[in-house]
Amino acid sequence: MAYNQEEQNEEEHKKIQYPLDSTCYRILDEIGRGVSAIVYKAICIPMNSSVVAIKAIDLDQSRADLDNIRREAKTMSLLSHPNILKAHCSFTVDRCLWVIMPFMSAGSLQSIISSAFPDGLSEPCIAIVLKETLSALAYLHNQGHLHRDIKAGNILIDSDGTIKLADFGVSASIFEPISGYGSSFSSSSSCLMFTDVAGTPYWMAPEVIHSHTGYSFKADIWSFGITALELAHGRPPLSHLPPSKSLFMKITKRFRFSDYEKTKNSKNYKKFSKGFKDMVGLCLDQDPFRRPTAEKLLKHPFFKSCNKGPDFLVKHVLQGLPSVEQRFKQVKIHRLLSLKKSDGDDDDDPEHGEISKQRRISGWNFNVDGFELDPVLFPTEKDQEISSLKPNYVDDVVKQVDVSELFSDTSTISSPGGSRQSSEVEGVAMNCSGDRRIGGESVSREVMLASLLFLKKSLDDQRQNVMNLISIFHGEQHVVEVNKKDNLIEVIDKLRNEVENEKKKNSALQLEIEFLKSHYSNE
Ligand SMILES: Nc1ncnc2c1ncn2[C@@H]1O[C@H](COP(=O)(O)OP(=O)(O)OP(=O)(O)O)[C@@H](O)[C@H]1O
């Protein structure tokens, strides 16, 4: 089912039309990879060989179906704002959707910080980037759209310092009719709400993860706050944890910034202004209704006092930076090397060694705190002594999750009346909540299922990453200069094993989900 954006939007006739034929484009270099897409630098031959970026989305891997993407592209083509990256056109090429976009020569802020500013940008630079992004967000929200994937990876910068918000892959219009979206949509509450889970885990608002309560524009404000921390520290909070674990921590223990506390004592500890910390704190209020709108946030003193522009970014961020394609190659090499380095890591883990070498697995158990499926080993004598103390794991999970308590925060950074409890953690770290054990009897099956589905997605993503690495080995050995045949065979064998392991984990997880579904439907 081929489609092109042109036939769906009369507006498009008014502007220069890029060709809808893949043979008109010549790919020059790969410049980025997402979960289900590869981004290329290319030239459009009939357009005086002008440089473009092509995002090739694998429709088999992508969550969205073609109808939704088509609808989204149509809606997005009506938007116009200096800080929003508008695609030139899009069309299908086999099972891929090619989105032809302006080439933003410095790439994303994420690619910049990961290669040149691992400890984050300076506050004046962050202020400019965030202010421009927030203008785009305020416009989007005023037009009735949620972005749903705000993060540094989706903020692009051009060689002149211009900032544009990109990637509307999961964005959605709150004004669209229910039937028009793959999203679940609820209008039962006082404002229109989405209930499907969309976005990238570390940046997701608690109400998005806890999807049955619904979410709206304020979910973007949360992600905006996380993006501020990402730009300030070089990574989002909790990113040292696997995505599923970070999600579950947010649901059960509420979001804390304890991982940034360590930063305070490190040599790279940075001090940020009160205004910046206050602004981030407002975005990261656990209660979406207390978070400010994008419009209101733009009036915050942090942004009001930001009077520098793109030139400042050129001077302090872009100068001397390798090109986006060079940076991407470096990232690939780095990933490859860390993969090789981690080859032997499992052997260092005594528990893992024991599992794999001495003991047989009898099944899987759900580790509530770690939000992981742990293998259950055939018991040793010592295990049998304590086994009678362990409750049935499903009951255990169900009794420990009291959804009514999850978001009734008593120690958030903003109090209902607007007065603020002291921010005890310095830097951007804020004490959002105590680490309270959750008790009670109420049960959220949706949370359980949503969480398990996330875990499954995380495993799928890991599998995809391994596949990507395999393709790097096959296609670009000259880049990584791995010439020794023996080495290659050994690494490929290990990758193959990893894929097999992932497959096994996926099947086990599938069984687990089936079990939980039938368990709940029987009740
Ligand atoms: N129009 C563009 N011009 C220049 N570089 C781009 C452009 N679009 C994307 N990139 C580069 O490609 C990288 C990958 O982009 P992509 O949108 O596929 O992934 P992502 O948003 O980081 O990940 P995900 O798919 O998980 O959302 C970006 O980080 C950026 O450096």
Automatic annotation (TrEMBL):
ATP binds at residue 55. SMART domains: S_TKc. InterPro entries: Kinase-like_dom_sf, Prot_kinase_dom, Protein_kinase_ATP_BS, STRAD_A/B-like. Keywords: ATP-binding, Coiled coil, Nucleotide-binding. The keyword ATP-binding applies. It comes from the Eukaryota. Residues 485-519 form a coiled coil. Residues 25-303 form the Protein kinase domain. Belongs to the protein kinase superfamily. STE Ser/Thr protein kinase family. STE20 subfamily. This is Protein kinase domain-containing protein. It comes from Solanum tuberosum.
